[in-house]
Amino acid sequence: MSAARAAREIKEGRLTSEALVQACLRRIREREPQIGAWAYYDAESALRQARALDRMAPGLRGPLHGIPVGVKDVLDTADMPTTYNSPIYQGHRPAWDAACVAATRHAGGIALGKTMATEFANNHPAPTRNPRDLQRSPGGSSSGSAAAVADFMVPLAIGTQTGGSIIRPAAFCGVVGYKPTFGAINRAGLKAVAESVDTIGVIARSVEDAALFVHAVSGRRLPDFDDQPPPPRIGFCRSPYWEHADEATRNLLETSASRLARAGAKVRDFTLPPEVAGLYTEQDAIVYFETARALAYEFHRFPGKISAALSGRLEQGWRYSCEDYDAAQHHAEAARIMLAAQMEGYDILLTPSAHGEAPRWRQPIGDSLFNKNWTLLGLPCVTIPCGTGPSRLPLGVQIVGPRHADARTLRYAHWVWQRLG
């Protein structure tokens, strides 16, 4: 059941939060030994919260009333361990909730547990398996969030993205991922790795569910999905990395563009200006520089408890100078201004979510080549499942909107979803 439908049924008295939480817990007990989506969950606490919410007067109920939510284990929680998937923080109990977790609870949501993340939301894989094929990875770094939603363990899960950590896992698992405009959701209580890029978002089963969550925790306007918008003006952005996508992904995007044009959309090719197309190296410079400094304590105090992959990344980050960093930030800001002007004739862009199907389990979590630029530029992005690859595993298309145009981007992503999903 989708989060939006569950919220409506709870509001109308046709479903209780306790029954919904019980159903999620049954699924977790059945499937968690195979999937490994959870770093921690507390069944009794979730049921106590659900029963208390069921007794609450209707006038006091929020938009997420009674809905269980997974919380990525890089976000602090006062009532559950927060380990950032690192042995350095085993048993760590923060004294407070991250702002987005507190907002989730304030809106009536139930923090059911902590979903697995890669180590400090970097590239060292989590043990989680992809529910679509247990020999495949769900991607990362929001590995457990994507797997838990895809396997019907929970209707919503919070994710974070610095490169492609919401969009890519959602695409690999065949669900919806939404990375809002940078800063749309408060990041207090997030274990930062790149403070000028880190963005909190959500993994869900529908565009409507994703919009509901972000509305509930940020107060941003909820699109009216019952009111059909005019067909959008779509820029088909193959991106400079088009040849890095596999044949199935390229075919899916070409076919999707044609189908949307037949449905009435005005689809035109969209070529990124060189200043935007070349941002890949700037994104690396910014993220590596900031990550090295964000994890300086852990790197110097506990070098033996950091994976070789992350250790190498941190060493590389320290090699970037402040001048390198400032130049990269200056380039990124200029690119934001340039792209905003170029997008004025378009409502959304259509582009790949990932290179192809999910990688093998325990292999690298997948390249964020098709996500990094949009994340660095702070643009809202939505991935929609709409096809399968040669191994019958999910493929997605990515919808990118103008900065701070989240409601419009979600509305048009829903329009696309209805015609492709």
From TrEMBL:
Residues 20-410 form the Amidase domain. This is Asp-tRNAAsn/Glu-tRNAGln amidotransferase A subunit. One of its GO terms (molecular function) is transferase activity. InterPro entries: Amidase, Amidase_dom, AS_sf. It comes from Pollutimonas bauzanensis. The keyword Protein transport does not apply. PANTHER family: GLUTAMYL-TRNA(GLN) AMIDOTRANSFERASE SUBUNIT A, TRANSAMIDASE. The keyword NADP does not apply. Keywords: Transferase. Gene3D superfamilies: Amidase signature (AS) domain. Residues 121-143 are annotated as: Disordered.
